[in-house]
Amino acid sequence: MPATASGEIKIRIVHQPQKNGDIYVLERRTLYDPVKKYNKVLSSRIISKIPKGEDTPVPTRPRRSHAEKVSNSKPVSAAVTASRSKVGMMDIISHIGDASGIDDAVYGNTDTGTAQKILSLARYLLATNGQSLPGILTWQLTHPLPYEDGISEDVYHDLFEQVGRDESLQQSFFLSRCAGIRDKAVLAYDSTTISTYSESLPEARYGFNKAHDGLQTIKVLTLYSIETRQPVAFTKQPGNLPDVITIENALKQLDLLGLSNAEIVTDNGYYSEQNLADMLHAHFDFITLSKVSIKWVKKELKAHADEFRQTTSVCPYDTNIHGITVMLMHDFSYTRKYASRKKGIPEGEKETFTRRIYLHLFFNPTKRVEEDAALDHDLLELKNQLEEGTSVEELSASGQEKAAKYLQIRHYGSKTTVAFNEKAIRERKEENGYFALVSNCEKEPFECLRKYRRRETIESFFEAGKQHADGTRSRVWNTDTLRGRLFVQFVSLCYYEYLSEAIREMKKSLGVENGDPEHDQKENLKLESRLKSWLGNTPLYLILQWFDTVEEVRISSKLRAKRWTTEITKRDRLFLQKLGIAER
After folding, report:
1. Is the pTM of this model over 0.90?
2. 3-state SS of the chain: helix, strand, coil percent to 5?
């Protein structure tokens, strides 16, 4: 029988030859494993070495501790100190903050430290194209920011909570954004949704989700100046509330911001008789998209259908569109919030009033053909699916709605037959190609259409929020931090929209003679045309990244200090000059 393992740790001296001819003398501690039946090495330690060609061991130096390594690695104090940072992109963003008044608006409404943190985070979101905030921990080491003490996750989390509770800061900032609007403000009003995984946000609810990702959402509503291409203010609400009920609070906010004479432009998500009544009662001008299927609109459309064939109905700047205007005296009802002694009307009772409104009706023949073809395609596809055995319940929500309206489904045992409801389809096609705008102030159809089309700028603003300000997810877990984060993102989007508009305006004049002999030289116009082509083919984010290669080096000693930056091309220098940035 084999001997029983003792379980004792044994120490052996081992000689280990090296490639250079030296022999290391190791002290090795081993323990026999009776299951695997071999000695396991617990540790090895070099105690000496035998140099090549000799017989006598030479002691090795003792291993250094971590503290000794750190201590010995400290550099000797140098006579010269140097630093390098990427300043090209950050100079542009800093200039935008000054020129737009955004920085002054933030500094003027809170303490310096809080303002610097807000602006640092806003600039980071713009500069990195909306990368998530933890990335700022290393990014700030190479990019100068207003807050120089360093931003950590704890810093921006505490900031969001503080700003989220500071309603005075937010509303004062919105007020400063409105101060730059001259004449009568034309404001687009619309909403977007932000998805969230959080179960602790009371605003997060299941409703219409524009991302279609199946998550709960928070709805963010924004007022956007069409004329200045700048966001003015925002608010949030639970994700399950429909757009149509939000207009009352928007009117209150506009009154607070000193924009009581603004003209509000909305899409059909906000159309309702009640909203029109609220805007009229509050003396706000408006343009809103209305569905042509609404009874009183459809009545006027049928009555004036022949007028769309007249040449005078053609839009002068878009000949695909025909438009006419119908002036109406329309009855509205308003629920009184306060009693009227003069009129003898108690609180909560409905009051009826009549106002003049302008119904602008438009027709696009090309769009009618496209919508007819799309409807036919959808109905044929639904018919095939149902006859092949798909049940109505398995269709999408829109598919079920179309099947109920436009298809006649019959079952004969296991066989299903589908026929078209031609009357319903014909009535639906009668509305194709038409759309309607309702206004209480715009008398001309094509001026009204021009203003309404410009509201599409708010859609690009929402897209920028999702793509360039990390606005797709909430990434926070309570209401205060959500509001604070939304405010920082809003400031970043103010930067983005101002710079985008500055570049749009710049491109209009590039390569165009202006009567100045020095400017109109062939070489200069050629250079401007090159810049215009580059700006036209390069997204804003990549324009900023192009200048992120411009670095600044600072070197100082006891006797002198020196600073220089990376050289740039003539085209890049021209771009900075057009923005109004002085060369270093």
Report:
1. no
2. 45, 25, 30
